[in-house]
Design a protein that fits this description.
The protein has helices at residues 14-25, 37-46, 68-74, 84-94, 119-126, 141-145, 159-169, 182-204, 209-229, 240-251, 256-265, 270-277, 282-297, 302-312, 317-325, and strands spanning 7-10, 30-33, 62-65, 77-80, 103-106, 111-112, 117-118, 131-136, 150-155, 174-179. With 341 residues, the protein is an alpha/beta fold. The chain has two domains: 7-180, Rossmann fold (3-Layer(aba) Sandwich); 184-325, N-(1-d-carboxylethyl)-l-norvaline Dehydrogenase, domain 2, CATH 1.10.1040.10. The structure holds NADPH dihydro-nicotinamide-adenine-dinucleotide phosphate (NDP) and 1,3-dihydroxyacetonephosphate. Its EC number is 1.1.1.94.
Length: 341
C-alpha cells in the first residue's frame, strides 16, 4: 500500500479518539467518524473532543466527520471503535459502502449475543471482500492520549493487515506486536473485562495484595480454560492481549469495567453504576454471555459464576467469597496437572 492511504476511524468515543490521535501523530490524515453532528461541530470549533477528553487538544490531522457513506467509500484502512452492541447493526446498515481490498480492523472488546460471535467474525461474514484484523492489548485510551509508553497487538491471518497496521500506528510511544491468532487475541480482550469488574469490586473491599494476585492469576486460568474449550490457542493468553490487558484493567481505576465493579463494591446498584459511568463497560454484557456459554458447554468458571451471583442474586458478597474459597482444592496450571472434575 502507498504512504498516502486514506484512513478512517469509526466511533468518536474514548478509543476511537485515541487511535485517531496516534495515527495523526504519525503524520496521517484521519477522518474520525461520529454519529453526533453537534459533537463533530464542537470538535471542529474547539480542536478538542471534550465529551471524552476534556481539555486535551487533538492533532489538526484528525478531521471529525458525520457522512458515513463518503467516509467508507474513500477509505483504504478503517478502524472500528464502536461498542459491541452497535457493531452488527452498524455493519449491516453500511455494508454497501465498503470496497473490495479495504483493510478493516476491529478494536471492539465485546461479544455478540446471537451465536456468540466476535466482531471479526461479523466483519469476515458481512464484508468478505475486505481484509480483516483485530487490534487489542493493554491500551487505556486516556494513557494513549498522554503518550504513555504503550504496546498493542495486531492480529490477522493476513500479513498485509499486520504489516500495514504496524507501519501506520507504530511510533516512539506506541509499539505494535503481531499475532496470527485473531480469535484468541479478540477473545482475550473481551473476557478480561469480566475480571476487571471483579478486581474493581475487590479493590472497593480493600482486599490485600495476595488477594489481588490470586484474582488475576485465577482469572487468567479461567479465561484460558474457556478459550481452549472454544478452540483458541492458550499461548496467546501469555501475550499482551491476554495477561497484558488483564493486568492493566484489573489494576487501574482508569478502566471503566474496574470502575463499575468498584462502585458496586461500595454499594451502588449495578444499573446506577453503569449509568453514572456514561461510557461503555463491555464486561457486564460479556459476563452474561460467557456465563450462558460456559453452562452450555460445561466449562467450570467459578469467578464468572460468583460475579453473576453478586450482581443478580440475593447472595451477599461475603457468601460468594466463602463459596469460592472453600470449594474443592484444585490444580494450579491445568495444562500441566489436569483439573479435578
Ligand atoms: N477506552 C479504552 O481504553 C478502550 C476501549 N476499547 C474498546 O473499544 C470499544 C469502544 O469503546 P470506547 O471508545 O472506549 O467507548 P466510549 O463509550 O468511550 O465511546 C463509544 C463511542 O461509540 C459511539 N456509539 C455508541 N453507539 C453507537 C451507535 N449505535 N452507532 C454509532 N456510534 C455509536 C458513541 O457515540 P456517542 O458519543 O454519540 O454516544 C461513542 O462515540 C469497546 O468495545 C471497548 O471495549 C478497546 C481498547 C481500549
Ligand atoms: O480495554 C481497555 C484497556 O486495554 C479499556 O478497558 P475499559 O473498557 O475497562 O476501560
Amino acid at each position: 500500500m502507498s504512504d498516502n492511504n486514506k484512513i478512517a476511524v469509526l466511533g468518536g468515543g474514548s478509543f476511537g479518539t485515541a487511535i485517531a490521535q496516534v495515527l495523526a501523530g504519525n503524520g496521517h490524515a484521519v477522518k474520525l467518524w461520529m454519529r453526533d453532528a453537534a459533537q463533530a461541530e464542537a470538535i471542529r470549533e474547539s480542536g478538542r473532543n471534550d465529551r471524552y477528553f476534556p481539555g486535551l487538544t487533538l492533532s489538526p490531522l484528525v478531521e471529525p466527520v458525520t457522512a458515513i457513506q463518503a467516509t467508507l467509500e474513500t477509505a483504504d484502512v478503517i478502524f472500528v471503535a464502536l461498542p459491541s452492541k452497535a457493531f452488527r447493526p452498524f455493519v449491516a446498515d453500511t455494508r454497501p459502502f465498503f470496497r473490495p481490498g479495504q483493510i478493516v480492523i476491529s478494536t471492539t472488546k465485546g461479544i455478540e449475543r446471537e451465536g456468540f460471535r466476535l466482531m471479526s467474525e461479523i466483519l469476515v461474514e458481512a464484508l468478505p471482500q475486505t481484509h480483516v484484523g483485530v487490534l487489542s492489548g493493554p491500551n487505556l485510551a486516556g494513557e494513549m492520549m498522554q503518550k504513555e509508553l504503550t504496546a498493542t497487538v495486531i492480529a490477522s491471518p493476513d500479513a498485509r493487515v499486520r504489516e500495514e497496521t504496524q507501519r501506520l500506528l507504530g511510533c516512539g510511544y506506541f509499539r505494535v506486536y503481531a499475532n496470527i491468532d485473531m480469535y484468541g487475541v479478540e477473545l482475550g480482550g473481551a473476557l478480561k473485562n469480566i475480571y476487571a469488574v471483579i478486581s474493581g469490586l475487590a479493590a472497593a473491599l480493600q482486599v490485600g495484595e495476595n488477594t489481588k494476585a490470586m484474582i488475576i492469576s485465577r482469572s487468567l486460568a479461567e479465561m484460558s480454560r474457556f478459550a481452549v474449550a472454544l478452540g483458541a490457542n492458550p499461548l496467546t493468553f501469555l501475550g499482551l492481549a491476554g495477561v497484558g490487558d488483564l493486568f492493566v484493567t484489573c489494576t487501574s481505576s482508569m478502566s471503566r469495567n474496574f470502575r463499575v465493579g468498584y462502585a458496586v463494591g461500595q454499594g451502588t446498584p449495578l444499573e446506577q453504576a453503569v449509568a453514572e459511568l456514561g461510557q461503555v463497560a463491555e464486561g457486564i454484557n460479556t459476563l452474561e454471555l460467557v456465563r450462558e456459554k460456559a453452562q452450555e458447554l460445561g466449562i467450570p468458571m467459578p469467578l464468572v459464576r460468583g460475579l453473576h451471583e453478586i450482581l443478580y442474586s440475593d447472595m451477599t458478597i461475603q457468601q460468594v467469597i466463602k463459596g469460592l474459597m472453600t470449594a474443592a482444592q484444585n490444580s494450579d496450571v491445568e495444562f500441566i496437572l489436569p483439573r479435578q472434575a
